Backbone:
């Protein structure tokens, strides 16, 4: 992220998400606040990847706690958000939520996502991030890039614009 982007926020903490290579999260002051939990990192990546950096609670619960009841998944997501905000420290309020949605404050989040039509970085998307929640009919965990692709293809039959194709996800998850 540019120095000017951080300065424009007039002292309000922002974050920079590195999504290509091993995921990392840094505050505008350079402090590493990368969440320890896999699902917390996955939520940040899912939000960063979503239109307007916003996703419904129901969608996140279905993709991260697919084997839990609605009540259990809802509680797990609430607990994850509490922990995530603590880990983000001075940038905790970059994560917003209401009864239906969770989002990242767009003007306060910088990512290394390429612009539409631009070439993706050489590094693997979310390198090493494996989500320990099998979808129904699957065994074990999946590389996050494959989940990202599957979710985008499921939710957006045309491929979802910025989403990886199945071939790209396979190439990024080896």
Residues:
């Amino acid at each position: 992220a540019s120095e000017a982007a951080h300065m424009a926020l007039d002292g309000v903490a922002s974050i920079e998400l590195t999504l290509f290579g091993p995921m990392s999260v840094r505050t505008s002051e350079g402090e590493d606040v990368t969440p320890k939990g896999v699902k917390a990192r996955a939520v940040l990546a899912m939000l960063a990847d979503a239109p307007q950096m916003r996703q419904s609670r129901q969608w996140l619960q279905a993709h991260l706690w697919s084997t839990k009841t609605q009540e259990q998944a809802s509680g797990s997501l609430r607990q994850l958000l509490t922990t995530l905000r603590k880990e983000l420290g001075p940038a905790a309020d970059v994560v917003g939520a209401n009864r239906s949605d969770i989002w990242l404050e767009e003007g306060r989040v910088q990512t290394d996502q390429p612009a539409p039509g631009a070439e993706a970085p050489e590094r693997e998307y979310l390198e090493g991030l494996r989500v320990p929640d099998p979808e129904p009919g699957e065994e074990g965990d999946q590389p996050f890039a494959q989940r990202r692709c599957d979710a985008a293809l499921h939710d957006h039959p045309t491929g979802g614009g910025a989403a990886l194709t199945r071939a790209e996800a396979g190439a990024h998850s080896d």
Summary: Confidence is low (pLDDT under 50) at residues 1-9, 149-174. The longest helix spans residues 70-88. Residues 19 and 45 are 7 Å apart (CA to CA). The chain has six helices and eight strands.
